């Protein structure tokens, strides 16, 4: 692999292909732009958000980017922080987590390296031993621990569990390090010594190998189990490093992230929620984050059986409004969604999810209203607001961004309500005097009031 200095990358704004030295990557969304385009964008728009259409991540340029050693030439994360690589057992190519997940997510998964096309489906019935040997074997040849689900071949199982009659729980309540021995350093040491990685580990350690913290560089503590959640970085960390990370985030006014110095990827919704439970003394910090899961399909579910009726505005011949909707990290661009002005918020969200093909089982972490004259604001969707009139939301000239990434953001500041009040005041000011006089007597005094 090269160090990446001669690599050519594609700018998503000017469509140019430029060397790595002239490119900038936004964090945490990892979109790549050339330095000139990003400078012009920021000087004219004064926006804090990523320039990519459909992305509402707050743009931060991280200086500590490392060249990703993924062997896929089409990898979109070449400037990402250095993370664990997956070795394809059939062809021995090393892929980053994002390229591997994308490759195995199709009907006939093959290695994405150009000219390889080695089938990845051949490993469907095979697994890697979580013990020190890291052998690829058939699933039925493994023994699985009860506590953490580690899969061990027969030699590694005998090493960890010399007494076969006992329950298969990891010793001392600390789970096996599933990633031990996978690094290139361990493989290099094993090759240089003339022994296999398994033999090197067995000779060096007389006791079972346990998970160690991969957070701060000087930490030697035991890592937490099952943290972080799936589809995040693979760095297992201890509670002390997490607490130090939260302290630094409070000082820097930033979001929770992996404490590993070479990673710093932001934690997503499930992991941050777990941190809130693990660190109750940091309650004040977590109260500033939007961690209320109220955007699922259950919040707009309506089990009531109603009579079929004709919608009034359709009966009057009013045309539906067309609103643009987009899913975060979607390269297909926005879709036009038609909806009637006299509908309610719950019906609009259901139509939005239907048009964007978001099933009721998929998680949605937020609905955001993007306007030209103010910052993005979160649209609160729950059982209390689902019957709110769509017309009152004033979003007919806006774009709706649906967040499915789970990146945690700060709570909504209420500026959406302020914007709606300012717009209503402006409309009443621009109206003729006689019209304003009549509207004073017909104003709604509450959510249940009707026009006279």
From TrEMBL:
The keyword Zinc applies. Pfam families: zf-C3HC4. Residues 418-452 are annotated as: Disordered. The keyword Cell wall biogenesis/degradation does not apply. It comes from the Eukaryota. Residues 439-452 have a biased composition (Low complexity). InterPro entries: Znf_C3HC4_RING-type (IPR018957), Znf_RING (IPR001841), Znf_RING/FYVE/PHD (IPR013083), Znf_RING_CS (IPR017907). SUPFAM superfamilies: RING/U-box (SSF57850). Keywords: Metal-binding, Zinc, Zinc-finger. Residues 11-51 form the RING-type domain. Residues 423-433 have a biased composition (Basic and acidic residues). GO terms for molecular function: zinc ion binding. This is RING-type domain-containing protein.
């Amino acid at each position: 692999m090269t160090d990446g200095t001669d690599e050519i990358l594609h700018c998503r704004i000017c469509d140019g292909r430029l060397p790595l030295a002239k490119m900038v990557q936004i964090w945490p969304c990892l979109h790549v732009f050339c330095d000139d385009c990003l400078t012009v964008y920021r000087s004219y728009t004064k926006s804090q958000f990523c320039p990519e259409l459909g992305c509402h991540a707050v743009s931060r340029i991280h200086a500590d980017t490392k060249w990703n050693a993924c062997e896929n030439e089409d990898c979109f994360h070449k400037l990402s922080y250095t993370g664990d690589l997956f070795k394809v057992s059939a062809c021995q190519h090393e892929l980053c987590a994002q390229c591997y997940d994308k490759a195995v997510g199709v009907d006939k998964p093959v290695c994405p390296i150009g000219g390889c096309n080695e089938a990845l489906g051949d490993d469907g019935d095979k697994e890697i031993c979580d013990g020190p040997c890291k052998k690829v074997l058939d699933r039925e040849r493994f023994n699985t621990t009860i506590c953490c689900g580690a899969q061990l071949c027969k030699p590694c199982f005998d090493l960890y569990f010399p007494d076969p009659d006992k329950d298969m729980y990891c010793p001392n309540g600390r789970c096996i390090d599933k990633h031990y021995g996978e690094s290139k350093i361990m493989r290099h040491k094993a090759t240089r010594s003339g022994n296999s990685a398994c033999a090197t580990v067995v000779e060096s350690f007389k006791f079972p190998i346990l998970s160690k913290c991969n957070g701060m560089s000087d930490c030697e503590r035991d890592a937490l189990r099952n943290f972080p959640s799936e589809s995040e970085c693979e760095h297992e960390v201890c509670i002390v490093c997490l607490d130090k990370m939260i302290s630094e985030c409070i000082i820097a006014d930033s979001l929770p992230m992996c404490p590993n110095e070479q990673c710093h990827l932001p934690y997503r919704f499930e992991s941050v929620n777990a941190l809130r439970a693990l660190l109750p003394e940091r309650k004040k910090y977590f109260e500033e984050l939007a961690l209320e899961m109220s955007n699922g399909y259950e919040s707009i579910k309506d089990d009531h059986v109603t009579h079929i009726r004709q919608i009034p505005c359709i009966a009057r011949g009013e045309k539906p409004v067309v609103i643009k909707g987009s899913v975060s990290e979607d390269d297909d661009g926005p879709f036009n969604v038609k909806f009637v002005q006299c509908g309610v918020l719950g019906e609009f969200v259901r139509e939005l999810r239907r048009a964007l093909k978001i099933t009721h089982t998929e998680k949605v972490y937020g609905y955001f209203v993007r306007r030209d004259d103010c910052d993005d604001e979160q649209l609160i969707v729950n059982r209390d607001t689902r019957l709110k009139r769509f017309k009152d939301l004033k979003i007919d000239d806006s774009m709706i961004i649906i967040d499915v990434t789970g990146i945690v953001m700060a709570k909504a500041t209420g500026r959406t309500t302020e914007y709606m009040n300012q717009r209503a005041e402006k409309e009443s000011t621009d109206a003729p005097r006689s019209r304003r006089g009549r509207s004073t007597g017909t104003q709604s005094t509450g959510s249940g009031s009707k026009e006279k």
